[in-house]
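Title: Prediction job returns without error message
Component: structure pipeline
Severity: low
Priority: P3
Assignee: unassigned

Description:
Job completed but the reporter wants confirmation the result is attached to the right record. Sequence as submitted:
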Amino acid sequence: MISADLVFFQKSEWEHVTFSSDFSCSYAILGTYTLLVRGNGFTTEETERASLAFGKRIADKYIPSDGPFILIHDWRRYRDGTLQARKLFMDFIVNNKQLKLVVFCNCSWSQELSIRLGRALGFLKTGIRICRTYHEAVKVASFYVETGSLPPDKLDPFAFLHTKTARYNKELLGYLESIDWKSGKQTGEVALHYRHPLLPVFDSITLIRSELEKTFRERDKAEAALREHQQNLEALIHERTAALKASEIKYRKLLELTPAALAVLTPHLSVSYVNAAFTTLFGYSLDRFSSPSSFTATLCPDPAMEAQFTFFLASHLPEDRDLTCTTDNGTIIYVQVSLNTISDSLLLSFTDITLRKKTESRLFELSLKDELTGIYNRRHFVSVLSQELQHYQRYGTPISLLLFDIDLFKVINDTWGHPAGDFVLRELSSRIAGQIRDIDIFFRTGGEEFAVVMPGITLEQGEIAAERLRAVVADTPFLWESAEITVTISIGLAEAEQPNTDPKSFFRKADNRLYWAKKEGRNCVCSSQ
């Protein structure tokens, strides 16, 4: 009685392939765990591969993995199979890891011998059962599904052949099945008559088995040596790994303890490490730099500085560079960055040079300014006048130069003393600075001599400005302690004109007019001599 679970079940979507003449096998599902394969005959290797690959997909998709996968192979019409076809069948179907049992039916005696030899030689790695009919095969599959075991096998594959050839084949099969082909050793004994016609075959198999046993011994010896070598290698790797880890911990601690602010970058400029000194200097921890561009974008206050920093990093050249950076709280600091390459990483060392930069800036500023009055000195006057005249020559924008000095300044010093003279110089500088434009540039060119460079001012406009400066000095006395000191200035004014635009001639022109202002009685503006 066939189990109700093994009802023939044919998927409708398989019809155009499973029974197609182009396919060498037909397929159907019996119950839940049994796949029926019916051989139609080998056509070409390409169609065989397509047919068997389709069968494997059916098994993988429709047969659950939680139970025994059973294959019924019906050879009723499979009469022209080739060695290649059988090999493909085993590669695709029989050696499926989920397959537990193959039930063959409708086989010829030579096919049965082939199956049993395949099992004896270890080519078939699953359980096998050979049945005479398809009905018997279904009963065996049903029994295995229900009990998990096979019913007793009463079929003698050679019982129906009462010939010497059948007996010889049976003896040969028994001898082959007595050999463990994984080790080459014989698990049982087969007694042979000295006149047995297959004695040369048995001797050949014995010789092969002997060579196999020798080969397997050598293999086992090689495997043992390999295992020992692998164990030694694993021990060495473990030792080296531990040493590397200890070294990494040591150097990471050194990096953490060093007072220099350090950052380690990959070749793609991703930040892999920053030490405590870096976080102290900038206020940023490692998690602030999530992408390669975030490092330069976070540290640099503007795109121009970011581009400069990125170009410096991309060069991979071991050198130093001064950069302007932004800290986490928005403070602008100046740092010197040292770049070095270590293996495939970039090591950046940051030194805070903000104080040095400010000192240098202050020293530079002092080199350009008059110490007493705080306005620019004569050295800077020469540089600025030259630059402004170059601008005038290029663009034609008017520029005027105003020179003045304090009338009878020696009398002030002689009458009130040098401290009073210094006070007058500072107070006068303050008054003049309060009356000129932001773009006008004010200089002390000598003891009591001054200059104002006025970009964009014509001679007529300059006369108005000069008169205003003269009045702001003369109209209000300078209060020194309890005394009032009357101070006046004489002014010479000139506008740049082509072709006399060199600094010396321009200065000489304004200086000549200052001379005429003094000659005219002082406390006046001269712009025409």
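Comment from assignee: result matches the submitted record. The two ends are 138 Å apart (CA to CA).
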